[in-house]
Each structure stands twice: as structure tokens, then as C-alpha cells.
Amino acid sequence: MLEDAGLQALREAARLSPDNLPLRRHLAEQLLAKGYLADAEAEFRAALVLAPKDPDITAGLAEAFVRQSAHGAALSVLEPFLATPGYPPRMGVLAARALLGEGDMGRAGHRYHEAVSRDPSVADPELAARLTVPPAPAYAPPAGPAAPAYATPADAPSGAEVEKAKQTFADVAGMEAVKESLRVKLLLPIQQPELFAAYGKRAGGGVLLYGPPGAGKTHLARAAAGELGAAFVNVGLADILDMYVGSSERNLRATFDLARRNRPCVLFFDEVDALAARRSDMRQAHTRQLVNQFLAELDGVDQNANEGVLVLAATNAPWYIDVAFRRPGRFDQLVFVPPPDASARAAILRILCRDKPLAEMDFDAVARVTDHYVGADLKGLVDRAVEVKLQQSISAGRPIPMTTGDLLAAAQGTRPTAVREWLATARNYVLHANESGAWDELMPWIKGKW
Q1: Between 26 and 432, where is the model more confident?
Q2: Which of 292, 312, 404 lies closest to 358, judged by CA?
Q3: CA atoms within 13 A on the CB side of 115
Q4: Which residues pair with 321 in a beta bridge?
Q5: For residue range 162-182, what is the model confidence (pLDDT) as tens digits?
Q6: 5-130 and 342-412: same fold?
Q7: Residues near 166 by Cβ (< 8 Å), separated by ≥ 6?
């Protein structure tokens, strides 16, 4: 029961005129100012029904949540605005208070400093005194060969972890053109920073790897991290998607923050079309908001935010990705990862068999009968041959070397999994939906196969 006569009169007026937005907003603000937090929350909610996208009402509701220590609820209502460039600075300060309440001092400090840099009038000295983390500095490559410091798995959101990649490009058979493209576009700016800085090229960026399933896109991304000696964060859908509205966006933001804390870092999104699908195809507002958050993270809060963070993504269906992701500065660099040719298939087979007992092998002969096989198919073929050889070895009581005939026999019982179907789909887009020229790279390859 309100004891303030003025507030009682305002509440009665709002009851008699429930659709009067200015009156409801004024009542909510007065309740908040005088410390009636639960009542203020209820009035702000009622006002949001009348004006769902009003930033001042949203900020008021968030403040009511923060002052009630409902920090997760505050972040959820702020999320749609925070993902949009130029959001009200007051919201940034409120987000900082909520993040601090959840124990995330690093992100709270960055959010606070970013908001105050845009509008010094929102500064909160008490909050600033509690935040000891300065704004993220511009990236500088390590001075020597010392390994970068890695965050512990406990720092990772929703299961995403930082790892040290052991593979390098030497472990990737074939695909020399693809590896050279990744070197120039991603690795050299970090390996030779002075040269690239002279031309204004920053260390960071985004590349979208696309091609048929099993062609080695994930293997390439991990090898790129190993080639650089950088941290590697492999992000799966389960690390981002969450059933609660706002949580997926928060997981995505935390994943980028994890990579920024461990730069130089390769941040890899597999099956990225599930996170970056065309917004015009989406029916749910919160799924469109996830795409908006992804775009905002790729842009960064300032021009140096993603310095030293190499963002790689992989997809089998690049034509389903929102066109906004191909804007310069995001995934503007598309790299086609084709199925391996005969020489690459022979090289893949050599790598797959290098730690197994072998007789004299003719990998080229096996490569010739495995047209349209990708790396995953070849691994399955080798696994099948190994199973047969293990049975023979168990019966003989000793390891029996694997022969070319074993691999050829296994090839007789296997078929390529998905390349033909992918080719048919790609052909439709290349020949009939390529007005922008985005798929010109595929044209020679498709025509050579059909």
C-alpha cells in the first residue's frame, strides 16, 4: 500500500485512464525515484505494452530490475537495444551494473567505459570505483615466441573452450590454393604486422569457408590457428543457442569477449547458417535479434575491438546466409573449399594411414577409384579397411600390414556421401541465382563437373 498521497492520486488516474502512456510513464518514474521498486516494475511493464520499443521505458524497467538484484532480467530486457549501434548510453551503464552484479567485472568495465565515452553525463563514480578493468587496449602481437595466455575453461560461455591447436597446414593434404588464400587474408597480417600496418591493414577479419560436407573446413580452421600459434575457439550451436529469450545473444557476446581476451585467436563458427540465416526467412523476433547481435559483434564496439581476432565460419549452404554478413569488414571474404582432387585424395590417404602397419602402398590407385570422395569419406574408407585387418590380425596373433588391396576392397563397399547432392544444389544457384556475382568462383568448377 502506497503511503504517498501524490503517488496514490497518480495511480488512481492511471487506473481510470489505462491507455494514457505519458501518465503511466510518469507514475512508473515516480515510483522508481521513491523506491517502490516492485510497483515501478509493474508500471513500466504496463507502459511497455503500450510502447514496446520505447528506450526510456525499457531503461526504467531495467533499472527497477537492477535495484532489485534481478540482474539477469535486466540484461534480457536491455539486450535488443545493446545489440544495436548507437544505443542510449544510460543503457550501457545499467548493463554494466547488471554484469557486475553477475560477477562479470571484465565485460561490465568495457560496457561502462564505452557508454561514458559517448556521453560523460551518465558517469557513475560509485560504479566506476568498483570497476577495475580498463577499456580493451589496441592489439599488439607478442614480442617473442612465448605462447599467449589462455583463459581457463571456466571463463568460457555455455561450454565453449579455448584450446591450443596442434595441427598446421602441413597436416592438411592438398588445397594449396585455399591455404594460400587464408595465409594472405588472415595469417600474414599478424605474422608481419609492420608491413601490413604500413598499408593500413589490421590484424583480424572474417572469412567464410563454404563447400560440400566433409571437405575439411573445420580441419582447415584448426590448422590456421596452429600455423599461427594462436588460441582456437571452436563454437558449436549448443554453445550459443538457448531456449530463453536473450540468452543466446548473451552467449554469443561472451564468446566474442572470450576470443578478445585470448588474442591472437581464431574464433571458428561451424554450421554458421544456423546463426546467420536470412532475417527475411525468420518468423520469430528473437531469432532475428540473434542475427543482429552477430553482426554487431563482428563490427565491434570500436574499430580495434576485434584486432587480432580471426573469425572463421563454415557452412554447406552459403546462399542461406543473410546478405548483411557479406558486407566489407564482416564475412566479405568467401573461400570455396572444394572436394579433393585425385592428388589431394592420395595425400589424405597417406596422412590417414601414416601411423598404421603398411605394406608397399599405391595410394594413387585408390585415389583414382574414389572420385567425389571428401576427407570424411576417405576416413570412413580407411576405418573400414582397418576393421577388416584387425580381425585378420587377431586371428593370426600378430599385426598384419595393410595393403593397397585392402583399401580398394573397402572402396568397393562405400560410396561418397553428399557431394553429388551438394553439386546439384550449388549448380542451381550458380546458374540461376547469381545476379550479384557472389558465386562466380564456383562457375568453372561446376561446369567442369557437369
Answers
A1: 26
A2: 404
A3: 25
A4: 277
A5: 888 778 888 787 778 788 877
A6: no
A7: 226
Of 40, 49, 62, 59, nearest in space to 21 by CA: 49
Question: Cα separation of 300 and 232, whole Å?
Answer: 19
pLDDT at 204: 61
Q: How far is CA 175 from CA 54, 178, 374, 444, in A?
A: 52, 5, 12, 16
Mean pLDDT, range 345-358, rounded to an integer: 88
Architecture of domain 5-130: Alpha Horseshoe (1.25)
**Burial 138-164, CB ≥16 within 10 A → b, else e:** ebeeeeeeeebebbeeebbbbebbbee
CATH class of the domain at 342-412: mainly alpha
Superfamily of domain 159-336: P-loop containing nucleotide triphosphate hydrolases (3.40.50.300)
- Pairing of β 162-164 and β 231-235: antiparallel
Phi, psi of 424 (to 5 degrees): -65, -45
Say if residue 354 is exposed, middle or buried (CB neighbours under 10 Å; 0-12, 13-18, 19+): exposed
Mean pLDDT across the chain:
80
Res. 272: pLDDT tops 50: yes
Buried b (16+ CB within 10 A) or exposed e, 287-322: bbbbbbbbbbbbebbeeebbbbbbbbbbbbbbbebb
- Structural domain boundaries of the chain? 5-130, 159-336, 342-412, 419-449
101 pLDDT higher than 90: no
Segment among 54-63, 95-104, 193-202, 257-266 with least mean pLDDT = 193-202
pTM value > 0.70:
no
For residue 302, the model assigns a pLDDT of 56
Helix or strand holding residue 162 (H, E) = strand 162-164
